[in-house]
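Quick one, T. Sequence first:
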Amino acid sequence: MTTPEPGKTFELVRIGLLSISDRASTGVYEDKGIPALQAWLAHALFNPVVWETRLIPDDQFTISAALCELVDVAKCDLVLTTGGTGPSPRDVTPEATLAVAHKELPGFGEQMRQISLNFVPTAILSRQTAVIRGKSLIINLPGQPRAIAETLEGLKSEPPVPGIFAAVPYCIDLIGGPYLVTDDTVCEAFRPASARRP
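Structure tokens:
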């Protein structure tokens, strides 16, 4: 792990984690999305984090309401959803996300599908996207813990395939959020030289 300079302080970040699953939300099985997200982010970020977690069913109105609450009330800087992005009738996370968006960032979904295509041809069925609401970045992630880590971190292949989280800190800079600092051994954030802090 990259060690930060002694005495260096990092801005607090509020992160919302929203797991969307009919069965997990009713206790049929244990949710694995939120623990996987928390573990990866805790490993990747030096910033102190306030977590806001929610586990809800695949219902478009409920998802949109939860996203609005996380952004508008809980004041999350970053919201990551997991689940509900496939083509089945109950998969409505992208629709619920777009319904509350002020701006869409389709490049996140394009890169996630590009990463997943290295493993399964059915990655083209995924409909993940990302949006901005106010000063918050919302990203739809896959439902499986392994796929979550792969899409966030990228692939250490030759040539390497960048993960989506490399673009998250600068995006949050641009929309007025806190300055995120990543552990480069996990995920090296990209910022233009003019946006980097000492």
